Amino acid sequence: MRHMRWGFLVVGLCALMGGTGCGGKQAEIKEDRLTVGRVQGEVKVGMSAAQVAELLGSPNIVTTDDKRREVWIYDKVSTDRVDTASSSYAGLIILGANSSDRSSSQRQRTLTIIIKYDEDKKVRDFAYNSTQF
């Protein structure tokens, strides 16, 4: 009975850790693939759609232009929130005072990438827009 409990504990910990170190596949954490620098430095006219997908991942939107050529749109919005707290304490032997100030700031960023393909599914043009507010 005691060994059975340990077995459940080990299985539970392995499940909690996503199989890391327990003979399972290690969870892969991918870096943020959509950046202005990546688009500027690595997307080139003439690249195949497969190369772009490998570089940037799948687009959010796939559409066609007036000549039925594919257009891929990547649209990303991220929000960063920073909470700060400052405290000051003052005390006497019997009497104590506590003061605490909390503040929060929020920043949003957007990145839109538009990649236009030709009839052979090669990049013919691309554009991007990045904002931060």
TrEMBL record:
It comes from Nitrospira defluvii. This is Outer membrane protein assembly factor BamE domain-containing protein. InterPro entries: BamE-like, BamE_dom. Residues 42-105 form the Outer membrane protein assembly factor BamE domain. GO terms for cellular component: outer membrane. Keywords: Membrane, Signal. Pfam families: BamE.
